[in-house]
Amino acid sequence: MKVHILVTGWDKERAIWGCTRLGADKVYLIVPEFTKKKIESWVNEKTNKIAKSIKKGFSKYFPIEFVPVIYDDYLDCFKKVIKIIRKEKGNEILINIASGSHIATSAAIFAASITKCKAYYVQPEKYDEMFKQEKFISYGGRNIVDIPLLPIAAISEVEIEILRFIDKKGATSVTELAKEAQGIFDVPTRSKFNYYVDKLGDAGFLDNELVGGKLYTKINDTGRLVLEAFC
Question: Which H helix or E strand runs over 102?
Fold first, then answer.
């Protein structure tokens, strides 16, 4: 099955164009539930109105499901996209980031990167400058642009366990980690912990610092997002 995840914005035709050209068996529409920051109510209303228009016009061709998110909350958007990807495991998943909020689309790109899904962008045929009226920002589609994903290697179970332990422990030295987290390895050695801490630091999931000859590490926001995705 081909499953598309669309971040809903104000581009009805670009949102659905990839589905009709690439083929779709099921479509998820990321829609704004509410926002954390106070913005004009018509912004979310217009976005949801376009989502309903998409569903009304195309649900006869493939099932369409709404997924409400907090549109200006990166973590919430990320978690909801990951939840869909987990649910559809085994199917071909394509993520359309041609429209929608920048926060939601960037969260979708990161989710695609760590799960190795396909992300794409649809170039519009033309734009409509009067998009605030009862019109769309753009019309039609011209081309599909594949989005290069972030160069993130697959995450192993051992790496997830180390991230989880450091997240619970807080900032710690590798010496302490090697003593307290021996159960992660069948044959625990200090060199193994050094290797994985360095590797996860290079990947951007841990912040490592050498203090007085000792290597200290702590999880960062990116590492926590990875835990959200795989735990």
Answer: helix 102-115
Helix (H, G, I), strand (E, B) or coil at 115: helix
**Rounded to an integer, what distance in angstroms lies between the CA atom of residue 51 and that of residue 6?**
10
The number of beta carbons lying within 10 Å of the beta carbon of residue 107 is: 26
Helices (H) and strands (E) in the chain, counts: 8, 11
Q: What 3-state class would DSSP assign to 1?
A: coil
Q: What proportion of the chain, given as a percentage, has pLDDT over 70?
A: 87
Q: Is the pLDDT of residue 182 over 80?
A: yes
Question: Which domains occur in the chain, in start order?
Answer: 2-146 (3.40.50.11700), 157-230 (1.10.10.10)
User: What number is the average pLDDT over the span 149-172?
Assistant: 84
d(CA 29, CA 32): 10
Query: HSE on the CB side for 140, CA within 13 Å?
Result: 6
For residue 91, which of 119, 117, 109 has the smallest C-alpha distance? 117
Q: Which of 65, 95, 62 is nearest to 78 (CA)?
A: 95
Q: How many Å from the N-terminal Cα to the C-terminal Cα in the chain?
A: 25
* The predicted structure's pLDDT at residue 28: 98
Cα-Cα-Cα-Cα dihedral of 149, 151, 157, 162, to 10°? Answer: -120
SS3 call for 69: strand
What's the confidence (pLDDT) of residue 45?
Answer: 87
What is the sign of the dihedral through the CA atoms of 163, 168, 174 and 177?
negative
